[in-house]
Amino acid sequence: MASPPKLKDILDFLGRLAPWDLAESWDNVGLMIGNPEQEARGVLVALDPTMPVIDEALEQQADIILTHHPLIFHPIKSINTATSSGKLLKKALNHDIAIISCHTNLDLIENGVSDGLAKTIDLRQTLPLAPAGNKPGQGFGKIGDLPSPMDRDHFLRLVAEQLNLRSITLAGPVPPVIGRVAVCGGSGAEFAETARAAGADIYITAELKHSVARWAEENAFCIIDGSHFATENIVIPMLVAKLTTFFQQTNSAVPVMASQRQGNPLHHYFYENVTR
Questions:
Q1: Is the pLDDT of residue 37 over 90?
Q2: Measuring CA to CA, how many Å separate 89 from each of 66, 69, 85, 155?
């Protein structure tokens, strides 16, 4: 058995999978905290860096956490350990837990976040919704076709089941038959007009703004807000699989786990017999 790979080896692998320089200029990706020379004992993969995820890593004896959303977005001027972020940083550092983040670089690559979302509803012949990057297939969002057109009720049920949603938030009228679908995991309201112009019957994204919802209503174009968590968390199994294969190819017995403690932070409270 080969010696355990180091954190820097994992960073190199992730940089090949989702090149760091593809990240948006405002973004912060790569190593958030940690020693590049430390040996990997285990990797826990989650959407967000949170205290429950830190605790889960400790219980699973994972010394590396890979997240989609960055732990640190802006330059740190001070660390107040009385705050939630300060406590998280302190605990990670005290226990030598490294944290890596792949954010917009993972959004942009082919077979990234939006590809995962497209695959959950079995879209075929997908293309980037908003091409970007420096290679074919790169860009934000995806647009493609269902294997065969679906009526609205079956399609909405499919989305709810695949994204594990108890309810669906949408704007604009749902077309009676849906064949061509655009998707963008996470905050993709800015691509709503692009999706409509590209011929999509419906658009699945998250973080839908009021103004965009009103635009959808006025233009008779349906947009589903599947929630930020649900439309992006689908990339976690892909990251687990990619890292597992990497360790197998390097003959390293490093376990890779998806977080079981992190769910959608948004909840719905249902009322019965509510009248206006």
A1: yes
A2: 15, 15, 6, 42
Which residues fall within 8 angstroms of residue 221, CB to CB, at 6 or more apart?
A: 172, 192, 195, 196, 203, 215
Distance from CA of residue 94 to its chain's centroid? 28
Question: Can 7-106+233-258 and 110-226 be said to share one CATH topology?
Answer: yes
CA 129 to chain centre: 17
Residue written as tokens 């649900």? 230
Q: What is the DSSP string of 7-32?
A: HHHHHHHHHHHS-GGGS-TT---EEE
Architecture of the domain whose range is 7-106+233-258: 3-Layer(aba) Sandwich (3.40)
Residue 272 has pLDDT above 90, yes or no: no
Residue 41 per-residue DSSP state: S
| Sequence spans of domains, the chain | 7-106+233-258, 110-226
Residue entry with tokens 């429950």: 52
Q: Dihedrals φ, ψ of 74, to 5°? A: -120, 160
Check whether 80 has a pLDDT greater than 70: yes
| pLDDT of 57 | 98
Q: What CATH architecture does domain 110-226 belong to?
A: 3-Layer(aba) Sandwich (3.40)
Return the pLDDT at 274: 64
Grade residue 18 by pLDDT with cuts at 50, 70 and 90. Answer: very high
